[in-house]
Write a structure and sequence with these properties.
about 375 residues; TIM Barrel; Lyase, Ornithine Decarboxylase, Chain A, domain 1; six-stranded parallel sheet; elongated
Length: about 375
């Protein structure tokens, strides 16, 4: 599906590929249930449409980062349980409770704040998930104190600890020993919890990388894949573990064609000077749209199935490419920033590496003024 010719840049999002990835990950996680992470506008893919597609594929829960994301999902008509993965500030608690979102708690103080608002709203029970800090060092209780803390939390009016979880810092193979250490610490923290009377708690620790690499050792009630749902591997070496299909590809159009003579420069700062006479295409996408400025003189794109370099400093609204080796390039033609162009394919991971970053950032950077075209 192509957007109107007047659209200078757009992102194509395949809901079919998204559902295929969900089912592949669910198969990989046999014994656990997939809890899709749709924070950050579903990693740039579009919060509402992606979440609805995942629910239609069988997801019974969703996870977001902030209350406002959960509220947006409720406004979009989604009624499934939604877990908020970051601590909730006091001004956000009324919206959290009124929209029946499930908060995480990382401190007794945070639970008390939720309890106070619940009492004011006449809410008798709030199910929460307690975060255990096994080594990420962002938020959470210490593993050795979790039993004591859960007992304290459950004594707070309206607070009912329904689950415990942690987050792995190096499951993408940057430090396998540390990942194993975190998994072990979490397991050790669960041992006394399993012996306490009462209902069993839901558990989750496996992100995309852990699900692909450290499963079933990282098995929990749930697994929480994020980036893998969108067809991107946390580490390229993981490709032999599960087949994933990229969900998004980003494209733009050529706005202008001109010649650049030897010695002439292009764009801000004159960071590129032609070593010979070349043909330059000006593209309708810049850093305000998610084409990172760090790709200046480093990035590439596909035009007519050929890979061409981005030249000069990327501007807010435009970028330039050397199309000297694409003689048929003309105004209005499509340039692929990442994705497929005929038989040619430019992975988002490759473009991200050129920018000196990770694929997550490139996906999340795709701006609001870039329309998402959903393909099913």
């Amino acid at each position: 599906m192509m957007p109107p010719p007047s659209t200078p840049a757009w992102a194509e999002v395949s809901l079919k590929a998204l559902r295929q990835n969900f089912k592949a990950l669910q198969k990989l996680a046999k014994g656990s249930e997939v809890l899709p992470v749709v924070k950050a506008n579903a990693y740039g893919h579009g919060l509402g449409p992606v979440s609805k597609a995942l629910v239609s594929a069988g997801a019974r829960f969703l996870a977001v980062a902030f209350v406002r994301e959960g509220v947006a999902l409720r406004q979009a008509g989604l009624r499934c349980p939604i877990l908020v993965l970051t601590p909730t500030l006091p001004p956000q608690i009324p919206d959290l409770l009124k929209n029946r979102l499930t908060p995480q708690v990382s401190s007794v103080e945070g639970a008390v704040e939720i309890s106070r608002v619940a009492k004011r709203l006449g809410i008798l029970r709030v199910a929460v998930h307690a975060k255990i800090d096994t080594g990420m060092a962002r938020v959470g209780f210490k593993p050795l104190e979790i039993l004591e803390k859960i007992e304290t939390l459950n004594k707070i009016p309206a607070i009912d600890v329904a689950g415990v979880y942690t987050h792995l810092a190096t499951a993408d193979w940057t430090d396998p020993k540390y990942a194993w250490r975190q998994i072990t610490l979490f397991r050790q923290a669960l041992d006394p919890l399993g012996k306490r009377p009462g209902k069993a708690l839901a558990t989750h620790l496996a992100n995309s990388a852990a699900l692909i690499t450290y499963y079933p050792q990282s098995k929990g009630t749930w697994v929480r894949p994020g980036i893998a749902l969108y067809g991107v591997y946390p580490n390229p070496q993981m490709k032999n573990r599960v087949k994933l299909t990229p969900v998004m590809q980003v494209k733009t159009r050529i706005l202008h064609i001109k010649k650049l003579e030897k010695g002439e420069s292009v764009s801000y700062g004159r960071t590129y000077r032609a070593k010979k006479r070349i043909t330059v295409a000006t593209l309708g996408m810049g850093y305000a749209d998610g084409l990172l400025r760090s790709l200046s003189n480093k990035g590439v794109c596909l035009i007519h199935g050929k890979q061409v370099p981005l030249i000069g400093t990327i501007c807010m609204d435009m970028a330039m490419a050397d199309v000297s080796k694409v003689p048929g390039a003309k105004r209005g033609d499509v340039a692929t920033v990442f994705g497929r162009d005929g038989k040619a394919f430019l992975p988002v991971e490759e473009q991200a590496a050129r920018a000196g970053t990770i694929s997550y950032e490139l996906l999340c950077a795709v701006g609001e003024r870039v329309p998402r075209i959903y393909v099913d």
